[in-house]
Amino acid sequence: MLNWGIEFGKWNVVLDFTATNTNREIKLKSFLAGIITGLLTPNMIGNFLGRMFYFQRRERPSIILLTLFSNAAQFLASILFGILGIIWLGIPNNDFSWSEDSFLLASIIGFSILTLLYFKFEKVPFQFIKENKHIKRIAPLMQKNSFFRLKLLILSCFRHFIFALQYWLLLDAFGIEIQINWLGWIWQIFFWATLIPSLWFGKLIIRESMALWILAPLTSNPALVLFASVALWIINQAVPAAVGIPFLKTNNSKRL
To answer: How does DSSP assign 94-110, residue by residue?
Structure first.
């Protein structure tokens, strides 16, 4: 699947940056193990848990930190496309107390601050960041190779677009009459789902609820929206996670 192929590309970017000496088999197994631990944590943020045990202890702090940067890039991509969706189509079923312009301005400001933190993280004047030995070890490399974070962000944006396109095509496959502007609504589904905390299973239920809130008024059969959303989850998260389970168990049995 192209979606996870791009994510695997991001994982390779992380490993290339750390100059971790590993073969393609270990890269793939650690990646698959990370999918299952990511699925069991909020916003897939725990994917580093499955990955890190495939590497030596001295390598793990760097793996964890840079995987979190990769996850942050995906978060920023979701926010960026969501803002573009709001600019394009407005807020769906807007019955909130805030005005659309005010919310859009707040979102742009928030995105700008988060992007600045993403690219200048090691320069944030917080004591725990400045004194952390692992961050201090990685910081000079990150400053020297500024393209690293940009590459992760570009790949994340591409992955987000592909993920949205898959959703768009699934809606069409389920017989819903769709137009090109539905991509903007789909971007907003991911945007709102990203802003709402979840405990596990990759935003299952939350994303489906957002899909019904946004897309149900646009179709005569809202159940098809739900079926398409669940199908997307099965294809992109449940199946890859199931594939990753054996590697997680093998990894834990050998390393812990």
So the answer is: --SSS-HHHHHHHHHHH
Summarised one tens digit per residue, pLDDT across range 31-83 is 999 988 888 777 778 888 888 888 888 888 888 889 999 999 999 999 999 99
Distance between CA atoms of residues 172 and 155, nearest Å: 26
Instruction: Kindly state the tokens that stand for 180.
Output: 């090109």
Distance CA 81, CA 74 (A): 11
How far is the C-alpha of 162 from the C-alpha of 168, rounded, in Å? 10
Q: Cα-flanking dihedrals φ and ψ of residue 126, to 5°?
A: -105, 140
